Amino acid sequence: MSNKYDCVIVGGGISGTVTAWQLFKQGLKVVMVDPRTAPVMRLAESLPASVEPMMHRLGLLELLQQEPHSMHSGQVSSWGESVLRKAPLSDGHHGWKVDKSVLTTQIQAQLPEQCLFRGKVVEVSEHKEGWFCRVKSALDGSEHTLESRFVVDASGRQGYLPRVLNLPRHTFDKLTAFVANVPNKLSPQDLLPSVVVEAFEHGWTLISRLNADENMLAIFCNQHTPGFSQLKHSRHWHNLALNTSCFYNALPEQPFTVKAINASSHIMGRLSGKNWLLAGDAAMAFDPLSSHGMTTAIYMAEKASQAIQAALTGETTALQQYSKSMTEIYNSYLNELFGYYRREQRFPDSEFWRSKQGIQEPAVCSVVG
Length: 369
Ligand SMILES: Cc1cc2nc3c(=O)[nH]c(=O)nc-3n(C[C@H](O)[C@H](O)[C@H](O)COP(=O)(O)OP(=O)(O)OC[C@H]3O[C@@H](n4cnc5c(N)ncnc54)[C@H](O)[C@@H]3O)c2cc1C
Fold this sequence. Notes:
Elements: E1 4-10, H1 14-25, E2 30-34, E3 46-48, H2 52-57, H3 61-64, E4 70-72, E5 75-78, E6 85-86, E7 95-97, H4 100-108, E8 116-127, E9 130-137, E10 143-153, H5 161-164, E11 169-171, E12 176-183, E13 195-200, E14 203-211, E15 214-221, H6 237-240, H7 246-250, E16 259-262, E17 266-268, E18 272-273, E19 276-278, E20 284-285, H8 293-312, H9 318-342, H10 351-357
Parallel strand pairs: 1-2, 1-10, 2-8, 5-13, 10-19
Antiparallel strand pairs: 3-7, 4-7, 5-6, 8-9, 9-10, 11-17, 12-15, 12-16, 13-14, 14-15, 17-20, 18-19
Helix pairs in contact: 1-4, 1-8, 8-9
The protein binds flavin-adenine dinucleotide.
Residues 10-16, 33-36, 43, 45-47, 100, 120-121, 154-156, 160, 177, 179, 218, 261, 263, 280-281, 288, 291-295, 297 line the site of flavin-adenine dinucleotide.
C-alpha cells in the first residue's frame, strides 16, 4: 500500500467521516485516522427537520431514516418561566434523534478499508508539497508515516492541528456538561417529548431519550454553580435538581457514572491555510442548547470537501471562502445564543445566569485565512 495521499483526515467523528466520504466520492485518495472504536458516553444528539435537504444531497437521508435513528416530535423547555412549553428555538416541525456513533459507523462502512486507519496522528510536519503525518496504530502500536498534499483536522473540541500550529482560540463563555447515560424511569405519561430542557437557578438541565430504555441526562453549569466540582459524583445531582420537575423525576436512585465534558462556545482564530483546514468542533464549537454542533459539522464537511477539491486544482480563494462563510454562520449562532440566554430573567442574583447574560452587544467575530 502506498503511503501517499491527496488528503489525511485527523479524527473520525461525524465531521471527519463525512469529509472522508465526500472526498472519496470526488475520486481523491483519502485516509481518515482515528483510534476510537466506541464512544465513552452517548450524547443522544437531536437534529432539526431542516437537516433533511442536506442529508439528501449528501446521500445520507436513507441512513437517517433507519433504526436506531428516529423522528421525534419536538422539544419542550422550561425557560424564563416554570411551566414546560414547546421550545422557542424549535421550528414547530419534527426533529431527528440520531445515534451518532451508529451513523458514523454506517457512513464509514461505505468507505473502502484502505481509507480508514485505526490509530492516532502523533506528529505532523509541513514540507514544500504538503505534509508528513506520523501515525501510531491502535491495533499493534506500530508507527507509519503518511505523506499528504492536504490535511483536514476534524479531531473535536481539543483540536490537534490548532495546537501544532499554535492557533489562537476565541472562547466566548465557560460551560461544562456533566453527562450520564441512565435507565429510563419515566413513563410515557411523564415524558412525552424526547427532549426536555429545564433552567434552574444555577444552570440548566437536559433529558434526551437514547431509546425506550435509556436516557441521556446532563447538567450544564460553570464554575459559578455551587458545588460545581462535586457534580462528577451522581450522589450530588439530586440536591442540585430539587428545583426542576422532569429532570428530578428522571434521576435514578442508584449511583451512576458521570462524565464532565467541555461545552463552551469557541471558534479558532484561523479556519484554513494553504494546504489545511479545520472542520467540525475542531474549527468551531457550539453550546448544546442550540443543537447546532452535529448539523454544522456535517455542513462543514460538505463545504470542506468542495473547498479542498478546488484548492488542489489551484483555485486559491476556495479555502478563504470556506473560512468566511463558516465565520458568518458562527456569528449568527452567537447572536441567537446570547439572545436565548437573556430570555431567562428569573434568577437576577445567580452568578451563572449573570455570566451568561454579561455579553449585551451582538458578538462579531472576524476570522482570517
Ligand atoms: C452534552 C452534549 C450534547 C450535545 N447535543 C447535541 C445535539 O443535540 N445536537 C447536535 O447537533 N449537537 C450536539 N452536541 C454537539 C455534537 O456532539 C458535536 O458538535 C459533534 O459530535 C462534533 O463532531 P466532530 O466530528 O467535530 O468531533 P468529535 O465527535 O469529537 O470527533 C473527533 C474525533 O477525533 C479523534 N481524534 C482526536 N485527536 C486525534 C488524533 N490526534 N488522531 C486521530 N484521531 C483523533 C477522536 O478520537 C474523535 O473520534 C452535543 C454536545 C454535547 C457535549
